[in-house]
Amino acid sequence: EYLFFAVGIEHPDAQKFFVRYDATRKLQKLVAKGVGDYKLRPLMIERVKQKFFDMRYVDFPIPIGLTVFRDRIIMIDWGEKPVGILIHSKQIADNYRRLFYDIWNKGKK
Known about the structure:
By secondary structure, the chain is an alpha/beta fold. The protein has helices at residues 12-27, 41-44, 90-106, and strands spanning 2-5, 32-37, 53-58, 66-69, 72-77, 83-88. The protein has three helices and six strands; from the N terminus they run βαβαββββα. The protein has a six-stranded mixed beta sheet, covered by helices on one side. Helix 1 links the parallel strand 1 (2-5) and strand 2 (32-37).
């Protein structure tokens, strides 16, 4: 499972990354679940039609640009100069996974 807190961005590098990533993810049958603000729904219309992809939307603040995968947490800021941080920790990943599912369960499709 690939869990993420979505960001509402139009950065061209981010869009290129997600197009490539989605293709690879589908080949590996990796399930992606995301949570984002309701404003992101129009940006996600095509992605949610894909196999192995699901989104929920909330109307309260959430972490953004954060991904949980296995025992890793990735934080990405797609600003003018994109920057990312990778944390390799089962304990921290499990904490963020619990947070993700707490928010996921409150979200709507």
